[in-house]
């Protein structure tokens, strides 16, 4: 069984098959017969777990297993305590309530790589960084959650999936990982 951890760069499709001039995972990972265990949006960055094990893919991606996924999110504005409480309680996204999440304000990560192109800077609008931990994974969920509390997402980086993290991986880099037993995570 293969497990690969990839730091997916910004503006890369989370698939291997070619797609109308857009960069895909194939530009970074030449290992055959591995597939993403869950998706990460084209305009999001960070950890993608790839595997050749269908059962492991399901365990990682299926919201029924409630595997945690940790995101570092730069948002527009400075969220009040009440906005963070709303994220922790769960908000309504596309007419459905989200599961409760862990959400807290953090300092901008000191290890963070620059994004190309950079996030648009506006002198009159402050930004803040949040750490959000989900145990579900709806389409564009983090972006929709932060927008629902009045703080649109400017930059989204998935830091961790269960026990695996981006530690030591620059954008576009990957490494093999152990197929950790996820039953206790």
Tell me the CATH architecture of the largest domain: 2-Layer Sandwich
Query: Over the alpha carbons, how many angstroms does the gyration radius reach?
Result: 16 Å
What is the CATH homologous superfamily assignment of the largest domain? Alpha-L RNA-binding motif
**Domain tally:** 2
Mean pLDDT: 92
Overall form: globular
Fraction of residues in β-strands? 25-35%
N- to C-terminal distance: 19 Å
Unreliable parts: none
What's the CATH topology name of the largest domain? Alpha-Beta Plaits
Overall helicity:
10-25%
SS field, number of helical segments: 3
Tell me the series of helices and strands, N- to C-terminal. Answer: EEEHEHEEEEHEEE
**Sheet/helix structural class:** alpha+beta
The biggest sheet amounts to: 9 strands, mixed
Oligomer: single chain
Number of strands: 11
Under the CATH scheme, which class of the largest domain?
Alpha Beta
Written account of the structure:
- It is a single chain.
- By secondary structure, the protein is α+β, with helices and mostly antiparallel strands.
- It has two domains: 1-66 and 163-185, Alpha-Beta Plaits, CATH 3.30.70.580; 68-161, Alpha-L RNA-binding motif (Alpha-Beta Plaits, 2-Layer Sandwich), CATH 3.30.70.1560.
- The chain has three helices and eleven strands.
- The chain has helices at 54-61, 81-89, 141-148; strands at residues 3-8, 35-36, 45-51, 69-76, 92-93, 96-97, 102-106, 127-134, 153-161, 164-165, 174-176.
- Strands 1, 2, 3, 4, 7, 8, 9, 10 and 11 form a nine-stranded mixed beta sheet that branches.
- Strand 5 and strand 6 (96-97) form a beta hairpin.
- It is globular.
- The two termini are 19 Å apart.
- The model has no long low-confidence stretch (mean pLDDT 92).
